[in-house]
Design a protein that fits this description.
Helix content: 40-55%
Structural class: alpha+beta
Order of helices and strands: HEEHHEHEHHH
Low-confidence stretches: none
Mean pLDDT: 89
Radius of gyration: 18 Å
Shape: globular
Number of helices: 7
Strand content: 15-25%
Distance between the termini: 46 Å
Largest sheet: 4 strands, mixed
Length: 156
């Protein structure tokens, strides 16, 4: 069994264990041969819509490693990451992401429906055409936080 297969089987077992409590999702972050971050979906238990396995595994790994740069790690997930998790994955920059079950397989094989396709469609629309109303409010001060951040960054 390859290393990749080993970690995928590990994360599938985690998701299976979590399915009886919450949802069938789990994720790990691996650095070398060591798990440095773990997470399972706990959206309902924590009453937190952002408590997805991938986000929790990334948070755990970043905290343990003391960095937000996971470019020397891989992320393994039981299911294909949603757009929210994809955003965190891109910010964390793991060198690779492996997942077991695609969103289509989850829908066809288990009846698990996720608004994933509608999320992708929404993200491609201009803000004023999205089903959830988005409005940019213009202010002459809108760049001030970025200027403060740039000034701070130049001192570090």
């Amino acid at each position: 069994m390859s290393t990749t297969d080993h970690w995928i089987e590990h994360v599938i077992r985690m998701a299976e264990d979590n399915a009886v409590k919450e949802e069938p999702f789990a994720a790990i972050v691996v650095r070398g041969e060591v798990i440095v971050g773990t997470g399972v979906n706990c959206v309902h238990a924590t009453i937190d819509p952002s408590a997805h396995a991938e986000l929790l595994a990334i948070r755990d790994a970043c905290k343990r490693l003391g960095t937000i740069d996971l470019s020397d790690c891989e992320l393994y997930a039981s299911g294909e990451p949603c757009p929210m998790c994809m955003g965190a994955i891109y910010w964390a920059k793991p060198r690779a992401v492996y997942f077991a079950c695609s969103k289509e397989e989850a829908a066809a094989g288990a009846g698990f429906t996720d608004p994933l396709s509608s999320f992708f469609a929404e993200m491609g629309r201009p803000p004023e055409e999205r089903t959830l109303s988005f409005h940019q409010i213009h202010s002459s001060r809108k760049l001030e936080p970025f200027k403060a951040w740039a000034a701070y960054r130049s001192k570090v």
